[in-house]
C-alpha cells in the first residue's frame, strides 16, 4: 500500500482482473522487506503446519513453505484472483501437496481446532470486519502454545496522521493503536502478546501466543 503508487485501493482489498494481478505482483515485491522484518520475530520449525491469512500473491506462503521444509502451509484469501495468483506462484509446492491455497474468510476459518503451529497475517488485518471475532477464529485453529503473527506497515500514530487519514479514506481500511490490538488479542484468549514497532516507518508486528 505504498502511497506513491496511487493504485486503486479497493484492489488491495479484493484484487480483480488485470489491475488486480498487477497489484498482486506489486504486493509480492513491496511487502518483502516488511515481511522479512516480521518473520524475524518468530522461529519456524521444519515440521510446522502454518496458515497464512490473506495470502495475496503467495510470496509469503512460499517463504513459509521453504522454512517449514517438512511441514505444510495453507494460504487463504477471499479474492478469487488472489487464489489463482498464489496457486500459480507456488505451483510446484501445490503439486507436491506441501502447499494448499484455499478461498476463505478470516472470520470463518474452515479448519479444525488446534490445526496450526503458526498463523501469519501480513498486510491484511486492516480489512477484517471484526477483529475480535477474527482473532478468536485464529485462537481456535492454533495448537496450544501456537503463535499468531500480525505484520502491518501502518498503525494509528499521530506522527503519521496525515498519511494514515488518506489511507483510511481512500482505502476504506481501519487502523488501530498498538495498545488496541494488544487488548483485542488478550480478549480473544491469547496469553502472551508482544508488540514490535519500527516507529520511523510506522511498521508494527504483533506476536501472540495461545
Description:
- There is one protein chain.
- 43% of the residues are buried.
- The protein is built from 9 helices and 7 strands; from the N terminus they run αααβαβααββαβααββ.
- The chain has helices at residues 10-13, 17-30, 32-39, 59-67, 80-89, 91-95, 131-141, 161-171, 178-187, and strands at 49-53, 72-77, 99-103, 116-122, 142-152, 192-198, 203-209.
- It has a single domain (3-209), classed as 3-Layer(aba) Sandwich (Rossmann fold).
- By secondary structure, the protein is of the alpha/beta class.
- It is globular.
- It comes from Caproicibacterium argilliputei.
- It is an enzyme of class 2 (transferase).
Number of helices: 9
- Averaged pLDDT, please? 90
Spatial arrangement of strands, main beta sheet:
3-2-1-4-5-7-6
CATH architecture annotation = 3-Layer(aba) Sandwich
The protein's oligomeric status is single chain
The secondary-structure element order is HHHEHEHHEEHEHHEE
- Whole-number count of domains: 1
Strand content: 15-25%
Poorly predicted segments: 1-7
Portion in helices: 25-40%
Count of DSSP strands: 7
Outline = globular
Give the end-to-end Cα distance, rounded to a whole number of Å.
Answer: 30 Å
Radius of gyration: 16 Å
Structural class: alpha/beta
The top-level CATH class is: Alpha Beta
Protein name: Class I SAM-dependent methyltransferase
Domain Methyltransferase: 45-169
Keywords: Methyltransferase, Transferase
GO molecular function, one term: sterol 24-C-methyltransferase activity
